[in-house]
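ingest -> fold -> write
write: protein_1
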Amino acid sequence: MAEASLLEFPCAFPLKIMGTAVDGFAQTIAAVVLEHAPEFDAATIEMRASSGGKYLSLTCTIHATSQAQLDALYRALTSHPLVKVVF
């Protein structure tokens, strides 16, 4: 039996991805997101640096079509070496 989702699909779903502020972090994350959500517009990424500038937080809002899509995207992001946390 499939797990019931609290979300109704399709829906706009924001993902917050935090990682070390390195050159190309946002572009790398955008590429991962685009693999799972091809309609994602990387120009909509919201970026915020930590107070010390060591970390970067990205908010990527995708058009989620299924729980399976979100699960696969979370797995791809959380296993990426540049990513510290995804929520």
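write: protein_2
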Amino acid sequence: MLERIKNFKSDNFFFGLLIGIFTPFLAFFMYWLFKYYYISFPSRFIWFLKLGGMWDGIVKLSTLTNLLPFYIFINKNKNKAAAGIMTATVMYVLYIVYLMYFDNSEY
């Protein structure tokens, strides 16, 4: 088991995709933890954000956190992992476009 961890190649598209999907969730959780910890997470908190019209803005800010691992992987010449992070970011951008232009649901 320890040998598999030592031989892990971090220049992997799916590893970058996993980091690109996980990083905005972590940023979203940290936002809740430091600012709105008194609201139950995640259902009430998401409802609160949607009610205040802040949901798409918070998703945008959370997606920006993908810049940090992207630049780290680019500077270490791990281009496959950086491509995975970019793919996850594009998926988030498509979700943001959906929220901004097509989501007319009542809260």
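write: annotation protein_2
The mean pLDDT is 88.
The radius of gyration is 16 Å.
pipeline exit 0
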